[in-house]
Amino acid sequence: MKAPLVFCLLASVATHALADSRLDEVLQNGTLTVCTTGDYKPYTSLRADGRYEGIDIAMAESLAKSLNANIKWVPTTWKTLMPDFLAQRCDIAVGGISVSLERQKKAFFSQPLGVDGKIPLVRCADVQRYQSVEQINQPQVRVIEPAGGTNEVFARAHLAKAQIRLHDNVTIFDELLAGKADVMITDASEARFQQKQKPGLCAVNPERQMQYSEKAFLLPRDDVAWKSYVDQWLHLSMATGVYEGIVNQWLAAP
């Protein structure tokens, strides 16, 4: 009699787990809640009119459309991203999020969107001065980073001798241009984008990243049904050229 009882118990647990999936909740409620920082072009940016735009914003809108759902945006910061996500404030987090083992301990990631990595962003006149970690990791070098993200983590791990200052990720590039900081360590994709937006700033060796990294969407841990749906939607978006088309709107060469 014990075997049938155990089987029934396992079946009950499995059924309960399926019912609790974010996938079912989104389908039933018709709302997809999305956490995003709104300060990381070209992936996420909060416009003056209160609307979000960017590569990952467009992808989140595409995901919501596939679910016949509306989006509820949940503002967050890089410092509060994981606390907000673990508090179940959103179904998915997007906006140039780097895959890391620390984040993986607490959440799932979607399949990778692509490979990225850390490089220096500097004034163009200083490109030759800041080619390597060794050149940047000096007491006189002023490094500036947004608080709470993988850029700050990299800087504190590899640039301990340099002066590290934290700043918001919107006006941080103006600080570099104004000579109030020397180097920002960021992802190659952001550096490439900002050098087009901010004449006078240059991405240093964007093809030779200082650290391997991948971008992905952040998902609740252990929700296999939700992750499976997001991964399949993402696979189809890439296979059909939808993702490439969105990326090219933001990153295509002028």
UniProtKB/TrEMBL annotation:
Keywords assigned:
Signal
Ranges of residues in domain Solute-binding protein family 3/N-terminal: 31-254
- Tell me the superkingdom of the source: Bacteria
Under Pfam families, the record lists:
SBP_bac_3
Question: Per its UniProt record, what InterPro entries does this chain match?
Answer: Solute-binding_3/MltF_N
Signal peptide: which range, if any? 1-19
PANTHER family of this UniProt entry?
Answer: AMINO-ACID-BINDING PROTEIN YXEM-RELATED, MEMBRANE-BOUND LYTIC MUREIN TRANSGLYCOSYLASE F
Q: Which family does it belong to?
A: Belongs to the bacterial solute-binding protein 3 family.
Q: Which protein, by its recorded name, is this? A: Transporter substrate-binding domain-containing protein
Give the classification, highest ranks.
Answer: Bacteria, Pseudomonadati, Pseudomonadota, Gammaproteobacteria, Pseudomonadales
